[in-house]
Amino acid sequence: QVQFVESGGGLVQPGGSLLLSCVASQKIPSSYVVSWYRQAPGKERELVAEITSGLSDSYADSVRGRFTISRDNAQNTVTLQMNALKPEDTGVYYCNSRPMWVMAPGSAWGQGTQVTVSS
Predict the structure, then answer these.
(1) Binning pLDDT at 50, 70 and 90, where does residue 79 land?
(2) How many whole angstroms separate alpha carbon 22 and alpha carbon 37?
(3) Which of 36, 50, 55, 102 has the most other CB atoms within 10 Å of its CB?
């Protein structure tokens, strides 16, 4: 089971940027999709962005055009560049992975990285 360690969170003002990274504990199978999720206080965890090994990406409507997910298959890392941040982007951000033919995330959840957008 692939596990991830997330980093890069912090406190940023509205309109600012952050670059999140997650490193896998082992080589990510080429058939796996890697995803970023986030969980805001008092809310359920939600999918933010996904990327395949072929670098095909998809985004939640709320972040499309502001966030960019990238994947380095050789380094087993996935990043999330977040621009034009809004207070509603606040939450704990997590990486997870799944085989392409499975809909639900399959990795154990890590500790995540806290993102706080506030003036």
Answers:
(1) very high
(2) 12
(3) 36
